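Pipeline run #58 for the internal structure catalog. This entry was flagged by the ingest filter as a single-chain record with no existing model, so it goes straight to prediction. Upstream metadata was stripped on purpose; only the residue string is passed forward. Reviewer on rotation: M.T. Logging verbosity set to normal.
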Amino acid sequence: MKHARIATRWPILALGWLSILLAVVGTVLPLLPTVPFLLLAAWCFARSSPALHRWMRRHHRFGPPLREFSTGRIRPATSRRAIATLWIGLALSAALLAWKGSWIPIPLLGCCGVFVTAWIRRRSI
């Protein structure tokens, strides 16, 4: 039983570090999300290394979004940034679709944007 746990620990740990790397890259690239990769890393570290999980939760950059997510509440500044990023991404996607001549999915993008915006606003402090 212990051997099976050790065999699964290293791939989960590696996935956690890969997620951290992608989250850091996501802070520089505007369309690559950061928080989902942090959440995946936290999940991986919680299952493979409690010390790394504690480190993430106490980290000055990684900790606040993880703590916000765990409470289910979002700070107003984070909420505004998330909504702005969402609509910028949707506008770029709609422009690309329009440029390609595919107008049909654009209303679907708008509907998704409205629902995600409402979901984020409901969780704002």
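catalog note: Helices lie at 2-26, 35-48, 50-58, 63-71, 76-99, 106-122.
catalog note: The mean pLDDT is 86.
status: ready for reviewer M.T.
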